[in-house]
Protein: ABC transporter domain-containing protein
Organism: Eucalyptus grandis
Amino acid sequence: MVGVGDVAKPRGEAGGGDGDGGERDSVRVCGMQFAYEGQPPLFLDFNLSVSPGSRCLLLGANGSGKTTLLKILAGKNMVGGQNVVRVLNRSAFHNTQLVCSGDLAYLGGSWSKTVGSAGEIPLQGDFSAEHMIFGVEGADPVRREKLIELLDIDLQWRMHKVSDGQRRRVQICMGLLHPFQVLLLDEVTVDLDVVTRMDFLDFLREECDQRGAAIVYATHIFDGLETWATHLVYIQDGELRRAERLTEVDDLKSSANLHSVVEAWLRSETKREKKKPVTTSSQPQRTSLSGASPFTSSRHMAYYR
Ligand SMILES: Nc1ncnc2c1ncn2[C@@H]1O[C@H](COP(=O)(O)OP(=O)(O)OP(=O)(O)O)[C@@H](O)[C@H]1O
């Protein structure tokens, strides 16, 4: 484990931060705690910093907290006070200008919008790709053309009649129209064909190298990422296990690729889980009715049979 566990207050440096000058970090999380309602904390004293120019892979098993972390960084949840989750030295939640200006961009798993009590609903409707893309105000026409060409978008596509991958390309194009300073990507390349994915990753690399933008990218697909990413952050059950430069990951030096390294990490997690004793008693325990599964047979359930 690097960057965590050996100091009183663990801190993940995923961007070559110098330990001071946190105001220069693109992303800075200090002592973050977060729990979903009615559940034990997913994050407890979580720390992370990402510096400008970094392309940081966010890795971990299903349910380890990647999406939750990205949504918190995107300012979708209020977590702690103004100083706990900082993006570009501003509070991710409180500073709405971050998103409105396009400095902070988030591209999530599904293209949806939040509608009052209905929660997240998928975007529907008969709109053309042109209507969607040109509807984004203030975009630089040169950048827009570049993205349309890069993502091979046909402006005549009707959004309710295109494939998942085509819809995703329009979503990505719209999300990147403004030159972001911090981009949060939650597995948005799954639907892209190989050529589009590689061109998209090249475009992102340029954005970091030329403008000093920072990217945090959660994914389970590692093809081509060994040479693309600069840093790696690995979380397990909401706990930061690794935050290091890719070139400093020892396991990568002796392994064929990132895929097999991450596979080994995930398998060792599973093994540890299996070793946990299930019960301290030698006798099988009876489940109390109050903690029973709703599918456990009971007299009340008889009414539904
Ligand atoms: N809206 C929610 N309400 C309650 N619990 C949630 C909610 N969303 C996620 N969780 C729980 O929080 C934990 C972390 O979920 P999260 O979606 O952040 O994981 P993840 O690492 O992104 O997983 P995956 O790789 O499958 O996308 C999981 O145990 C999940 O069940």
About this structure: The longest strand covers residues 27-34. The two ends are 52 Å apart (CA to CA).
